[in-house]
Design goal:
The protein is of the alpha+beta class. It has 6 helices and 12 strands. A 7-stranded mixed barrel has the order 1-2-6-7-5-4-3. The chain has a 3-stranded antiparallel beta sheet with strand order 8-10-11. Strands 9-12 form a two-stranded antiparallel sheet. The N and C termini lie far apart (49 Å).
Length: 237
């Protein structure tokens, strides 16, 4: 059944309709944006009428992305299933509740799909990029330990989380527990291919740390060393 997504609850501005493929897929409904949190060239993210739920609309960068829908290889699919993959190996990610795809593909469709996930702001989690100035030396050491454990799990299971940077790692300021968002995670069979892609992903994290207040800290030191080892092992934090 179709899910219709509107910009507001007046239903005066329909964004797009989607075929719901998960959740209660036999029932159509309407979803409303009440607040836009982010709108850039790859996606639009906002809060729904249920403030505990965030919706992410995935934008089509090229027409090829519409075709990938048929093989379940679109970015909507990879992010939705990636969150479940991370949780299956013991890495925390937002709960994902529902997904839909742009099918039939409307003319001039801007979005290839959507998914619903928990609103992390309501559970006290904030991005590391926003938390960086609030942590003392001992907290950064604990944070480094938690990141090390996550990286070890990724390596052990040969799961690639490619979009590693401080904006995509959410942290609870009290417990320092982590949740990873934008979860385009994928499991690899061939170790040499995994290591090559893993090194690039770690480099993304290193670059974001170099331009942050974490530069020169234990976290910076650990990630720099991890990148130089390129998946050959892990140094204890």
């Amino acid at each position: 059944m179709l899910t219709k997504i509107y910009m507001n609850q007046s239903q005066s501005q329909l964004i797009q309709s989607f075929l719901k493929t998960s959740g209660n897929s036999g029932i159509g409904r309407s979803i409303f944006f009440t607040e836009i949190l982010l709108d850039h060239h790859v996606s639009m993210v906002g809060v729904t009428q249920d403030e505990n739920i965030v919706i992410k609309l995935i934008k089509a960068r090229t027409w090829h992305e519409h075709v990938k829908i048929f093989w379940k290889r679109s970015r909507t699919h990879t992010e939705f299933t990636g969150a479940k993959l991370l949780r299956s190996i013991g890495i925390d990610a937002p709960d994902v509740y529902e997904m839909g795809i742009s099918f039939p593909i409307p003319r001039n469709a801007l979005f290839i799909g959507y998914y619903l996930m928990e609103n992390l702001a309501h559970t006290g989690y904030i991005p590391l990029s926003d938390l960086q100035s609030q942590l003392d030396k001992n907290q950064i050491i604990r944070l480094t330990h938690n990141i090390r454990e996550a990286m070890e799990r990724l390596y052990l299971h040969k799961v690639l989380y490619s979009d590693l940077h401080l904006d995509n790692i959410f942290c609870h300021p009290d417990s320092l527990k982590l949740k990873f968002i934008d979860t385009g995670a994928k499991k690899f069979i061939r170790h040499n291919i995994y290591r090559k892609k893993q090194k690039k992903a770690i480099w993304n994290l290193v670059r974001s740390i170099r331009t942050s207040e974490f530069s020169g800290t234990k976290l910076d030191e650990y990630c720099e060393e991890l990148h130089s080892m390129a998946g050959q092992g892990f140094k204890n934090a």
